[in-house]
Amino acid sequence: MRLFARRNFLIGAILVGLVLAAALLAGWIAPFDPVKNNFRNRLGAPDDIYLLGTDRFGRDVLSRILHGAQVSLRIGLAVAVLSGVMGGIIGLVCGWWRGIDAWLMRVMDGLMAFPGLLLAIALAATLGPSESTVMIALTVAYTPRTARVMRGAVLVARAQDYVEAARSVGVRTARLLWRHVVPACTAPLVVQQTYVFAIAILAEAVLSFVGVGPPPPQPTLGAIIADGRDNMVEAPWIALSPGVVIAMLVLGLNLLGDGLRDALDPRMRRIMR
Amino acid sequence: MLRLIIVRLLAAVPVLFVVSLVSFGLTLLVPGDIASEMAGPTATAADVARVRAELGLNQPPLERMVQWYGGVLRGNLGRSILLNQSVGQAVLERLPVTLSLTLMGLGIACLIGIPAGLLAAAKARRWPDQVTMAGAMLGLSLPDFWLGLLLIYVFGVLLHWLPTGGFVAPGTDLLGWLRSIALPAASLALTQLGPIARMTRSAALEVASSDFIRTARAKGLAEPRVYARHVLAGSMVPILTVVGIGFGLSLGGALVVEQVFSLPGVGRLVIGAVLRRDWPVIQGGLLLTTCIFVLVNLVVDLLYLWVDPRLRENA
Hints:
The complex is a heterodimer of chains A (273) and B (315). By secondary structure, chain A is mostly helical. Chain A has one domain: MetI-like fold. Chain A is built from 11 helices and no strands. In chain A, helix 3 (61-96) runs antiparallel to helix 4 (98-113) and helix 3 runs parallel beside helix 6 (131-158). The mean pLDDT of chain A is 85. Chain B is mainly alpha-helical and 315 residues long. Chain B has a domain at 94-312: MetI-like (MetI-like fold, Orthogonal Bundle). Helix content of chain B is 80%, strand content 0%. Chain B is built from 14 helices and no strands. Chain B has helices at 2-29, 34-39, 45-55, 61-73, 87-122, 127-141, 144-158, 174-208, 211-218, 223-234, 236-261, 266-276, 279-307, 309-314. In chain B, helix 11 runs antiparallel to helix 13 (279-307). The longest helix of chain B has 36 residues, at 87-122. Chain B is globular and about 85 Å long. Chains A and B meet through helix 4, helix 5, helix 8 and helix 10 of A and helix 1, helix 6, helix 7, helix 11 and helix 12 of B.
């Protein structure tokens, strides 16, 4: 594919692909049970059995990271899809029906006014800690941005001559939107959701880190970092290694997003930011 | 000009209304009984009833909302359940720590990010550009709280140069304050550098091809000066935009970074309140932080006019 000829896109695909493969295969390739304690081997340094050492319960850090990456990817993907659908619909409605626009976008502006992380932390805590709670909280926090991008794209599309032409020959609104407007807006939407995917993974790590993520003993990347924080002096590998995986994923997704953006439509830069 | 300020202020009203509605509405979303949860597992029925009365939870939601809004409009956000302090006081007391951390992080990010972006634009598609942009992309992708831990490990644990946490008030010991805030500010700055450098680069590239830059070059101005004066001035509006967005992100980041470095800021207050279900503090903290956020965006909007006189005419 032409996309892969671009260096950035290729690097991004490799980074995400590596983590994705490792996470999907976690059940088979993880050397140990991620939640099984082994108090005889607490805070063990990395060696050839425990490649990334063990934490203060003697659990294998590598196995925990592999399973944690699975949670991150699951939450990130769910948030990207959910906020894509919700934001897409809201943006479409706002961009097309200007009467609704004024009201609905004010609500979106209000939600967007919150520092996203803080709103997500408060929401996740309110609804009680669980994986689906985190998905909902992050979706609420990041849908407004997507809605804004979609609305921008719809405004551009509705001013195009072919849309105007279809409208003037009496194509019904539903068909007009579905056949002519939505296809013109999918490219920016997909690119935006790639960034949301990345942001959601970062945010999930923060939520787990401060203690409102999926409850223990479920390993998540943020929770592993929080666990290792108390043992930074004796066992720095616990807190430091999950961050590398987060960085790989987020960097990879950002590069994929940039690659998609440049490949799909170089002019998109203007709507995206 | 004055008219524009008023228009912008009025536009903030519906935003703040939604914000307050969400802040209040949070308590309605809590599954289960807030009062018994807050009174703790050992509480008797009388304790629970007392907490319920204290919070006004025995009234219908609409009544509570009216009362809450009445308080908010008079500047009363209620009392913290755990701190024996009014919410307003608790937040305001900790605000200087959070704001100084945010501003310092953002300041460092600008001081490095803007020159780096200009350099990348001046050397577009050559190695300084590629190195800067790769660095910017990496910085953008690192979790700031993790970066904080990494910095603690390198500069605190390995090198013993800087403290690993804790806060010194600038009033008691200025150098100590700088030392205590250096690492948290650096970890915030590193994540904000990327967007600023990228935006500076793309704005500068666009400006660099315009007529007035050609004129500046034609009259024999040295290239560094062309960039430092004319290109930078022409790129200020997009840079301001990204710095304004960066302020919000840094503020959010600061709340978490405080947690990592044990700094007594609003983040620790609110996150502590979240974990211990101190509802008035959660609501008030959310509302106040967001108000600051809205205010900053307003100031950025007005700064545009100051930076770019062309925009004033349409205003």
